[in-house]
Design the sequence.
């Protein structure tokens, strides 16, 4: 019988960790109790309150993922609006520009997880579902009932184009001279007609990076209702049902892979949430699925910055970025 724990954590992001088979867990000692991770997959949905998910609109998440996950019932997103939350997940901070979804205008000369991984020789990829090209920082718009390329508003969900040490000349995004690293690591997950085909092919071959940040398009992420499903919660759930089994079946998964499923923020009902420390993005879902984690319900209040700290422990990299140094890692029981 599976043990279900009750430990504090806040519900605002869905972090589901599924561990992959590239680096043995014993390759480096546990830090803060977090074991060494192999391949990590961070999958981010949009604008969803924890209380709005149910087995009718999210049958895969609640019916298949939850029973195998460290499931955080008291997890809170960082702020509003979207870009600030994506940036906070990989840098531990955000700016007023990013709170206003300023996109490529919000350049920052700050350290970030991508650069931390570079320094210790670990690979990373941001997979953009619907992006027209590599290192996408464009500005097109899309119809309200169609999948939206990761341009225009959705550029806000593409953190590498913001940071000086992952972007173009002098750290400024450019359509003519983006950095070689951005072109290599910030890439479409498929073509306009093939969905996640490029990502899925790499999964099948076991050639994915150590850290994979997966950004669904503007329908698959649950940002808007789209035909034929016309239910934004279910659209993200369907995306998870398609991709999570492929990740688990990948040769990269193994005994120490990790999948993180989370949402950027709640539905922004009434604008910015009341002051709540690091949790002004509202309550949403976070779950970890991995052979390394003990499944169960974890009820301690926690915040999105703990995802970053957990990643920094699990790779591991040197130091904790900004507000990741002010929180604990996710209070997960590890096997």
Sequence:
């Amino acid at each position: 019988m599976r043990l279900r724990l009750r430990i504090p954590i806040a519900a605002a992001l869905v972090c589901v960790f599924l561990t992959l088979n590239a680096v043995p867990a014993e390759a480096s000692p546990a830090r803060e109790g977090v074991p060494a991770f192999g391949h990590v997959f961070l999958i981010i949905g949009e604008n969803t309150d924890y209380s709005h998910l149910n087995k009718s609109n999210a049958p895969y998440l609640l019916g298949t993922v939850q029973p195998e996950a460290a499931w955080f019932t008291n997890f809170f997103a960082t702020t509003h609006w979207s870009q600030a939350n994506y940036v906070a997940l990989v840098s531990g901070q955000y700016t007023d520009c990013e709170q206003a979804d300023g996109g490529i205008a919000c350049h920052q000369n700050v350290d970030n997880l991508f650069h931390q991984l570079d320094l210790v020789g670990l690979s990373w990829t941001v997979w953009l579902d619907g992006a027209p090209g590599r290192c996408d920082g464009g500005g097109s718009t899309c119809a309200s009932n169609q999948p939206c390329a990761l341009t225009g508003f959705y550029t806000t969900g593409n953190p590498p184009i913001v940071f000086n040490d992952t972007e173009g000349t002098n750290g400024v995004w450019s359509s003519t001279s983006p950095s070689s690293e951005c072109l290599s690591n910030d890439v479409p997950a498929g073509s306009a007609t093939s969905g996640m085909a490029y990502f899925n092919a790499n999964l099948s071959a076991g050639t994915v990076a150590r850290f994979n940040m997966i950004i669904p398009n503007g329908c698959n992420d649950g940002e808007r209702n789209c035909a034929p499903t016309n239910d934004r919660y279910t659209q993200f759930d369907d995306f998870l049902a398609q991709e999570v089994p492929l990740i688990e079946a990948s040769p990269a998964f193994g005994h120490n892979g990790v999948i993180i499923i989370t949402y950027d923020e709640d539905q922004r009902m009434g604008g910015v949430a009341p002051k709540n420390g690091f949790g002004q993005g509202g309550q949403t879902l976070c779950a970890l699925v991995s052979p390394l984690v003990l499944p169960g319900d974890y009820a301690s209040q926690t915040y999105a910055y703990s995802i970053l700290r957990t990643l920094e422990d699990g790779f591991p990299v040197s130091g904790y970025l900004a507000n990741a140094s002010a929180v604990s890692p996710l209070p997960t029981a590890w096997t």
Remarks:
- The chain has one domain: 25-277+291-326.
